Amino acid sequence: MALEYDSLNENVKKCQYAVRGELYLRASELQKEGKKIIFTNVGNPHALGQKPLTFPRQVVALCQAPFLLDNPNVGMLFPADAIARAKHYLSLTSGGLGAYSDSRGLPGVRKEVAEFIERRDGYPRPCASYLSYHSDPELIFLTDGASKGVMQILNCVIRGAGDGILVPVPQYPLYSATISLLGGSLVPYYLDESENWGLDVNNLKQSVAQARSQGISVRAMVIINPGNPTGQCLSEANLREILRFCYNEKLVLLGDEVYQQNIYQDERPFISSKKVLMDMGSPFSKEVQLVSFHTVSKGYWGECGQRGGYFEMTNFPPRVVEEIYKVASIALSPNVSAQIFMGLMVNPPKPGDISYDQFTRESKGILESLRRRAKIMTDGFNSCKNVVCNFTEGAMYSFPQIRLPPGALQAAKQAGKVPDVFYCLKLLEATGISTVPGSGFGQKEGVFHLRTTILPAEEEMPEIMDSFKKFNDAFMTQYDNNFGYSRM
Amino acid sequence: MRRFVIGQAKNLIDQTRRRRPQPHHHNNLRLLSLLRPSASDSTTVSSPRLFSSSSSDMPGSDSSSSSSIPVTLDSINPKVLKCEYAVRGEIVSIAQRLQDDLKTNKDAYPFDEIIYCNIGNPQSLGQQPITFFREVLALCSHTALLDESATHGLFSSDSIDRAWKILDQIPGKATGAYSHSQGIKGLRDAIAAGIEARDGFPADPNDIFMTDGASPGVHMMMQLLISSEKDGILCPIPQYPLYSASIALHGGSLVPYYLDEASGWGLEISELKKQLEDAKSKGITVRALAVINPGNPTGQVLSEENQRDIVDFCKKEGLVLLADEVYQENVYVPDKKFHSFKKVARSMGYGEKDISLVSFQSISKGYYGECGKRGGYMEVTGFTSDVREQIYKVASVNLCSNISGQILASLVMSPPKPGDDSYDSYIAEKEGILSSLATRAKTLEEALNKLDGVTCNRAEGAMYLFPCINLPQKAIAAAEAAKTAPDAFYCKRLLNATGIVVVPGSGFRQVPGTWHFRCTILPQEDKIPAIVNRLTEFHKSFMDEFRD
To answer: Required cofactors, per record (chain A) (predicted)?
Structure first.
């Protein structure tokens, strides 16, 4: 055999990605056997019945089949604003959806992204051309989903095991997996569950000091805002502290902001790291290096299957941008239809457009329902025995803590499983609910969680939470009792 | 914690590095062997080609450094600095600047448009997509169309049937959902059936990994195979620079084998053996052999007999065969036929246990040329299940490839059949594109061979011509004075005089002392005569200027 397991790249073997790990594989097996599985392991809204927004799908369908635009009957199937928009995007390409674009993405779409960022952050585009823009299309790269962007940036930053990246724990395992694949070192900082997954800058300082004392050069920090899997939204004051910290410690800040549309409370609306950085003024706004990531997979769009995203770099020297461009060019270009989805996301129908009302109705409907589901889920978990759960302020996940009794820990050990994996497997077998064990995201030692998305259809939610509660409470009773008996 | 321990060792090393300038890799290797006790000690590895461009100073990146920002050119991953990808390199940047300037400054140039012959991007040069494929994609993009009666007036009936069939294979008909990380199972079934029909040997849908174009598949395999510069990959020279770039990014060693230009870019087994031994003697473990068939940039189509010898060589030497077969539909000469390596291996009686083989396919090439879709797959055979699990895991970190690319990949492997509503128009479109490509290849090849000091093998397949230019000494001296490779010098002159963008042979590597360029055969047929004229005129004046 030409290729033995032993001879594979160690970094590949070390890498772990729990979102599609043991639980998911078992769930797929059960599904094949005919069991009804509720996949709440991945933030994949359309897989759980969320309908795509109509307008963007119309525009992209027209771009897929541009010959329709010449057909006199096209108006029978498509509204005029979708037709106009399809023509607009096709005019930005050189050869439609079938041609490679610039490796950074279509310049016209990158311009629309830059304008979106300026509108979102309240930095309107200056009229005079000599004034510098708040957001520069040349520093925006479109990608096949946000993950590809994260990989590109980390590949640029990590030179070897001596380079450390500060990552929140619990974290979205893309970060641990990518750092491991690239042979770098993950430097954890713990979010405080008792403070609603708050980020305490003193913790950061400790993590950095500890890593440095171990000889690691800490080079970058990751924040996920709103949090995945933890669902918290960072306050402006907190973001300021983080940016000041990055300035003092000379860290690149990677701002994972893919859930910026997914906010379910009103006290802390989403505020971008870029805006806070610009508001802080010099020297911070001129020196802190920031990369912000966004995607079409989340928000009320949920267009995961398109693989569309972007990242924006701030304060990156032109020669470094050149190098990142070079690496992007090896992959030729991100897929063009997802680039158009991105254009549509940052530039949705406006009041007065034919499709505006429908678009607004659809997007509001999705967000309001998600808000209700976030609440049903948190309340459901908190009504269960030995389960406590912070409210999902944003993103798409609930991350309850499961207080496993010693009997369960023992049973897990006997079964050769990590305790939360053991719990999640039992949950899956009993109810068909496919979750991800907290150990896949990292958690404090001896504390156990699971992650579930809040994406199952709203009408199914009460039943799911009932079946969860029934399972959990029986599980807790069983293992509490077992333990009691064994002690006797 | 283990990470921290490794980090500690590495950081000590970094500090040592920082104390002295470190222009080459020998130290790296010694230091690496500290980190990897399994790596046998070696101080002799050298691959001058691969390391020649590495001249980065070692970074000082922690807070003691004087730089005020963390990520600068001096402190980024040196592997990133080292990799090169000429297809979109300097010449293309110049071309883009010229194109911008042309808009406002038309009179300043002796041409009125830039013609991009640097990259195999057919639809950017006016090639039309296959109607049936796009109909299906449009219907899958906006599935509500399937419920409208007006749709039947605008779409072919078999495209509607096919869209339904595809949607039925997608859980919940959700084209906006992440799929299985290998790709949607039903689409992989269609691809496996297509491979079976092509080869006459069975294909297993579980062996298919769908990817965003063929390139991510190549990266995945490199990531798996390469642990350090002691791992080597045999690559053809000239090669498509995806391979050199990916090997550099993953920190491995490219082990070159030279194609023989005199015999139509022939692949000699004796050359493979020689290079393999040479690499071994330098302490490199060669892990895989990359073969591009039909060849890029060289356009040759391998004979079946040659392929058998290659398969035997890989089997004997225990190499993974990485078969880049993205140009399988692009064969232009009646005396050659495409044979997949899997078919060749199976017809020799070799099964799963005998040879590890990865075949790459893409929707960007062929007669479809759907580059912007980023679709492709690799068929992975002859690997143990624990290795395949690792491939799956790496694929899963990126979740999945884009769904319209997946749908299109299944369509190109299962196009309309005789009797289908779209069959006749599909065949007409396909044949039209392929026969026109053959004509263009022939016309350009003949024109190039007429130029003084230029010889050009025919493009038996793929999308490129790779002529050899015998540059006069004077031109070489002028290039040296301009601090540029002689072929890049020629290509820049060509661009400035004609607006034609080609890629210098040095971007693909070539036998030292020979000079080439790569030119696609993709400009539309009606533009070819003008291109030939401009090229001929330019070449004549270039030779007049520099003739020794």
So the answer is: pyridoxal 5'-phosphate
What's the Rg (C-alpha) of chain A? 24
Contact at 8 Å (CB) between A389 and A382? yes
Do residues B211 and B401 touch, judged by C-beta distance below 8 A? yes
Mean pLDDT, range B384-390, rounded to an integer: 90
Mean per-residue pLDDT over chain B, rounded = 88
Do the beta carbons of residue A199 and residue A168 sit within 8 Å? yes
Nearest to B8 among A4, A98, A215 (CB): A215
The pLDDT tens digits of the residues spanning B230-278 come to: 999 999 999 999 999 999 999 999 999 999 999 999 999 999 999 999 9
Residues 246-305 of B with CB under 8 A from A: 246, 249-250, 287-288
Distance from CA of A434 to the nearest CA of B (A): 15
- Give the per-residue pLDDT at B18: 43
Positive or negative CA dihedral for A9, A14, A19, A25? positive
Contacts B312 to A, Cβ<8 Å: none
Beta strands in A248-308 (DSSP E): 252-256, 290-295
Q: Higher pLDDT residue, A3 or B366?
A: B366
Beta-sheet strands, E only, within A225-323: 252-256, 290-295, 309-314
Q: Which of B169, B374, B388 to mutate to test the interface with A (most CBs of A within 10 A)?
A: B374
* Candidates A20, A159, A178; nearest CB to B78: A159
B144 pLDDT exceeds 50?
A: yes
Question: Could you say which DSSP state residue B529 is in?
Answer: H
3-state secondary structure string, A353-386? Answer: CCCHHHHHHHHHHHHHHHHHHHHHHHHHHHCCCC
Q: Which residue bears the tokens 């078999």?
A: B158
Answer whether B34 touches A (CB < 8 Å).
Answer: no
- A147 and B399 within 8 Å at the Cβ level: the answer is yes
Share of residues in chain A with pLDDT > 70 (%): 96
* Residues in Cβ contact with B240 at an 8 Å cutoff, skipping those fewer than 6 apart: B292, B296, B297, B324, B508
Count of residues making up chain B: 548
Structure tokens at A69: 């635009």
All residues at 6 or more sequence positions from B219 whose CB lies less than 8 Å from its CB, including other chains: B246, B249, B250
SS3 of chain A: helix, strand, coil, percent, to 5:
50, 15, 35
Which of A7, A73, A315 lies nearest to residue B153, judging by beta carbons? A73
Nearest-angstrom CA–CA distance, A472 and A476: 6
The letter for the amino acid at B471 is L
User: Of A2, A459, A150, which Cα lies nearest the Cα of B382?
Assistant: A2
